[in-house]
């Protein structure tokens, strides 16, 4: 009956790219073979039709129906889709859905509209939630009225001009709010617990909250606080990178304000979160403003992976319970609040789809006057086939005990046992852990760490983020685990009763069919761990194989350019060391000592200047070269090649430069070091861009000719270089060690963080960049201070005299001996 | 001089049969030592001869040699005002370890320069004949030649290191009858007289190898520094059975015909590597003759070294300068001089040994010709063991074909980045791919030899030439072909495996592993070197 009825119709669906929407599209295409679909999707950059192909039909949900097409079929799957499915560009966040006349005309040909678009993220900003969840259904209804009025010919199902299609709005059971006891299938305002608030006022205040937050984020205090934060996380990354970061942080701050606003407004009215709150008001607004549009509301509880259709365990996206379960399996969530005997109301997606299609088949409800009457159908499991929270935790734990997730060291992670504490205790616990990590992280950030050590701090940071996320789950979903409402299913069962045998078989929606242990352990978890890409087998370190893969990409033939930073990327040295080496080369022992002491005394000041701004530091520091003879510097630098540069080089780094060259990539060194210092390295690179000083009368002035190529100047230098040599930066690889190189790293297609210092290490990890640890050769001479071996001077006059005297003495001795021998020989 | 009876009547080297009463035997082990008890009744130990007495008056002996050369006019007769004179000398790789000042080269060259000055020769160049070795540093040149010579010549740029990659610095002298190219340092080749000052620490050195190899370049040396030649040099320490030397001698014919006139000065030194007294003297004594004091010194030294970081140990050992004494000096025509030199070398080194062994053991010391003031990296471990030690034989190898060599060395995965840059890449890339010398030669040699970066470092830094690690590997090619297995005791397992050898943590384990190849209860011979010995195997 369902199939036969719906075969005659054309159905519009919003939110088709979502979990439920995709399931609906798939089900209709497969089980209702004559039906036609109009999908209202946000066009994005690629256009609506393109999104259909990319974001819907490519999903693995369609594997089943695809497999029914073969060479003998009269059409391909794609041809079938083109024949039956039409894309309309539209946005439920815009008035009139942002439909163009063709879109409206296409909507007018529909008999049924299923509105499943929503922002389901439980921490979305208040105003976003309001625009989509609250105003969305109203906008759909309005567009349908306009479409009905503009309709030129009857629909497939026989709707005439002015006659509106049937709107099925998907809502959520949780519109009933955080209450105990049964929640029947009735309109929001019919409930005795409903607090009457005016939805229009809520809309206005949400919009104002956005304006207020934007305003507050722009106060000088706030901005300087954000700037400080940006510097803390990026270091001396240069102006543009920092301003980018500040703006990013500001937007994040605004979003956080609005999320908080949503959550507190929701809880003040007895809803678990802004999602349920805006959904509830959305239902109300829709019913109030529906006009002649017949409305049915379907309220599922927490939708989870498919029970059987299109395939057991099928799921799209990482949904509500999954991140929590994943965090638990990784051992991160030591505790999660909840009431052990409370009901966790989850419902497989295919049951929800079947309910919606049954409602669509039934058509709108009428009151005694044959006028359309909005009705509600709930689809949930709690009332008919409850899954207790304790039981779920048990099932999950025993499954992960048998199928543990493996950590980076290939050790199985044992899952914790939950004791179902109150939410407050969990929050406090997580808070404490986070504070400890915060302290550790701040301590590490101050230390000048690199490479492996920096990795450790990046690990700490990741740990902290995971904790923050865990904390977020508790805040977001804790309310759901503590929800004690029971969603009644009387109308759903009435609908079920009305179905014939075939429909009951093909469109099963009875939650009683779900055997929870089987569903959780054999259907949901196996599919979920795959979806979450949890490491279920010990084996090669996934990170290692990842670096190998990235390394291969970096050394691919099509790359055109490899850019290298010098200090701490190829060589464990810096401008101070090379200066000290050159400066001490011609000093005597006493002067060396005092030089060393002086430099050591200055070190902290220099270090902090370097952290502030690299080019300021260089400009200041290079003044020391004032008066240095050009020729002497060149000669001494040649000696420094061996004693400092090569001795402190990273052989793997040097090898990488040469590998790039061998592959035909252009190799470029960009460094803030002085030209004469790195001159002996010239044969290693195709090009070198360095800092240069002016010279007069054969001596350096200590003034730089141009801005030294560091920070954003380095980025600009690279861009100019690429342009001049006709190279594509997307095909470029850049190696650098510090967050001050961020602009350059971000500019290329293949950034590599080498021996990264703490900040860059964490950025690189987060962005999935290749991270290399290059070390000095074991066996390299280890000198504490970069003091040069003394250049040999002309021997002093005294010494020359002594040498001469010794030679004369030796000659005299020899002659005496010879004479003696002759005498003896003669005597004999 | 203190009166140690051994100085006057040094005992020759000999073969000890190990019985139950034999004390544990000393094994060199890098910058460390091991004492190993060898199985009684099937093991023997070959001891080097005690140091021959040095010449009483080395300066006089040198003068004598210069004035009365073999098959050549006295040196003063070869010198005249206005001539172009070049003095080439052996580089840092000789002797091992470096000798105490004054170095023999200094003694000889000072006299040569005196004679040149007497003949009013102005145009004199001094060249370190290092072929493809690393350049010598200022300190090293000062050590070898003395400050007086250094200060007189270096500032004028008339004392310098040979540069085989100087595009204008080399000349081709022609082809040998086997079509081998002969190249030579241009200054040396275009001189009126080339005086070569040699230091013959082992029988491989000297003769035509001094000039044909020392002053040559890649084009010249590749004709004998290759796998086929080395596999046919049995051994390369025995000039008459050495394809390496046959090739060098053929190149010598070309030099004789088309090159400069050569005045060859060759010297030999005694076995006094560790001194008669001092902390290391115990290394030169036979274990059962160790006094209580020797034992205490040794245990103290060993314990001290055990707790020291490896860098500190290396520093201590590299600072050791041997009190070598000159045992002979001969000058004149190359081949006649070398004939004499070899006899003198053999007098000190040769130890007659009867019969081969199943298992040959070495304790590898901290130094080889290529890590003076540097790090003995795993490739050098291979070269010292399977190249030098294995080849220190005359007649036939000490170990039977298919036998096992057990060497003892920590073999750390450590490289000197300045001296051995191409070794690092050879070890990481080439050996990661294959350890077969023929494959390596075929697939990688030219790539490394012509590599511009390595050439840059060879010329401007202190790096061995890019191709040098290949030669290290070829030096062991004969042994690799001959042996059934190579085991390294106490070596870093990672680097030992990378070399294609097997790591063992104790000598007992190693002997058991050797048993898998040569059968149970094999005969064992320990090669008690250094001080240097050469086995004459019958």
Radius of gyration of chain A: 37 Å
Low-confidence stretches of chain A: none
Mean pLDDT of chain A: 83
- The CATH architecture of the domain at 549-772 in chain A would be 3-Layer(aba) Sandwich
Q: What would CATH call the homologous superfamily of the domain at 549-772 in chain A? A: HAD superfamily/HAD-like
The parts of chain B where pLDDT drops under 50 for at least 5 residues are none
The share of residues in extended strands of chain A comes to: 5-15%
Structure, described:
The complex is a heterodimer of chains A (828) and B (538). Chain A is an alpha/beta fold and 828 residues long. Among the domains of chain A are: 203-268, no CATH class; 549-772, HAD superfamily/HAD-like (Rossmann fold), CATH 3.40.50; 796-828. In chain A, 51% of the residues lie in helices and 11% in strands. In chain A, the strands form 6 sheets. Chain A has a 7-stranded parallel sheet with strand order 3-2-1-4-5-7-12, with helices on both faces. Chain A has a 6-stranded parallel sheet with strand order 16-15-14-19-20-21, sandwiched between helices. In chain A, helix 8 runs antiparallel to helix 10, helix 15 (423-446) runs antiparallel to helix 16 and helix 21 crosses helix 24 (630-646). The radius of gyration of chain A is 37 Å and the shape is elongated. Chain A starts with a helix and ends with a helix. The model of chain A has no long low-confidence stretch (mean pLDDT 83). With 538 residues, chain B is α/β, with parallel strands linked by helices. Chain B has a domain at 5-51 and 317-323 and 349-537: 2-enoyl-CoA Hydratase, Chain A, domain 1. Chain B has 21 helices and 20 strands. Chain B has a 7-stranded mixed sheet with strand order 1-4-19-14-16-17-18, sandwiched between helices. Chain B has a 6-stranded mixed sheet with strand order 7-6-5-10-11-12, with helices on both faces. In chain B, strand 5, helix 4 and strand 6 (123-128) form a beta-alpha-beta unit. In chain B, helix 7 (208-214) crosses helix 10 (243-258) and helix 14 crosses helix 18. The model of chain B has no long low-confidence stretch (mean pLDDT 94). Chains A and B meet through helix 24, helix 25 and helix 30 of A and helix 2, helix 5, helix 15 and helix 17 of B.
